[in-house]
Specification:
It is built from twelve helices and 13 strands. Helix content is 40%, strand content 18%. The protein is globular and about 65 Å long. Strand 4 and strand 5 (58-62) form a beta hairpin.
């Protein structure tokens, strides 16, 4: 239980308090939770504008009422992770702050259904929109993940795909992107077609190698149970018993998007990810993702999950950069999610 300090005496928490104290059982776990040179506590203090003081196994948090309570939830969540044998890193601190701000505790045992298990790691949501996204992928055959870079749209989709393949829910993973030249010229790159396009698929490969041992990735790519291919290679196919991901979908044309979506076969799942503020198509050419959002908004079985700068799980500066660009684009009248 958290307590408040009133006239020098600790009393049970009330809504009017500005200071909370909590005693933890295990001093060794506390040192890990605090981080090297208390870096984790400093991160919580900076993000929530609170002050955290430590005396032995007692932790006191002072600051604005609502934010003090959030900080208390963050400390509880991090300590709970350590008690269950999990690590706490700076990214976990950021995730706990983000989730606690929205009243969503970062306690995996209370949210068992949203844990993605793969050969190399367990993946859990680090933002409320990520939790919504994971649930949408479990419940729907077609999911659109929309929003800025760094929100985990592609990474979580690959994690879900690998998990479903390992559990025998699908036979095959198909990862695709439109081969759009974002300011570069493919023709001037050395090598054959695959060597030219592989750099564009690096984020997908990186996610795969995060989920599976390298030899398994190579083996599955070789026998075709994992396929990484440009969008054009989807034409004329029916994709059954597969988990299909279309990444960077803002760079599809409306015709390409319609072609891709109509590839959906029996026992298949599709996830489409994209950022409508990062369209690399020629000026004046409409985005197929934009059109799909407009046309499919009311279609049963199709889910849309929108991420914002608040859901960015990379360095916190990335969130501020995304927000600054969004504000500038709003002033200029660009389309914004």
């Amino acid at each position: 239980m958290w307590f408040e300090e009133t006239a020098g005496v600790m009393q049970p928490l009330t809504r009017s308090t500005m200071s909370l104290m909590r005693e933890f059982d295990d001093n060794l776990l506390l040192q890990v939770m605090f981080g090297p040179q208390n870096i984790h506590l400093s991160q919580i203090e900076r993000q929530l504008n609170v002050r955290i003081d430590v005396r032995g196994n007692a932790v006191t948090v002072s600051g604005p009422i609502g934010l003090v309570e959030v900080a208390g939830s963050v400390l509880d969540a991090l300590y709970d992770r350590l008690r269950r044998g999990q690590q706490v890193e700076i990214s976990d601190v950021d995730a706990a702050v983000r989730m606690s701000r929205h009243g969503t505790p970062l306690l995996e045992e209370r949210n068992e259904a949203l844990i993605i298990r793969t050969s190399k790691r367990h993946v859990v949501p680090r933002a409320p929109a990520q939790a919504e996204y994971l649930q949408a992928m479990r419940d729907n055959e077609l999911v659109f993940g929309l929003g800025p870079a760094g929100t985990g749209k592609t990474y979580l989709a690959v994690a879900m795909a690998v998990s479903m393949m390992l559990r025998g829910k699908v036979d095959k993973l198909i990862l695709s992107r439109p081969a759009v030249e974002a300011g570069e010229r493919l023709g001037f790159l050395p090598g054959d077609l695959r060597e030219k396009i592989d750099p564009y698929f690096r984020p997908l490969y990186d996610a795969l190698y995060d989920m599976l041992p390298g030899d398994q990735v190579i083996k599955r790519l070789g026998i075709g149970t994992i396929e990484v291919a440009p969008l054009a290679f989807m034409r004329g196919r029916t994709l059954s018993n597969a988990f299909v991901i279309l990444d960077e979908a803002q760079n599809t044309t409306p015709m390409q998007m319609k072609m891709f979506l109509t590839r959906l076969g029996e026992n298949a799942r599709m996830v489409v990810t994209g950022d409508l503020s990062q369209v690399d198509l020629l000026i004046g050419m409409p985005s197929g993702l934009h059109e799909a959002v407009r046309i499919l908004g009311g279609v049963d079985g199709v889910a849309f999950v929108c991420f914002t700068d608040r859901d960015v799980v990379r360095h916190e500066l990335v969130s501020r950069i995304v927000r600054a660009y969004q504000e500038d684009e709003s002033r200029e009248g660009y389309y914004s999610l």
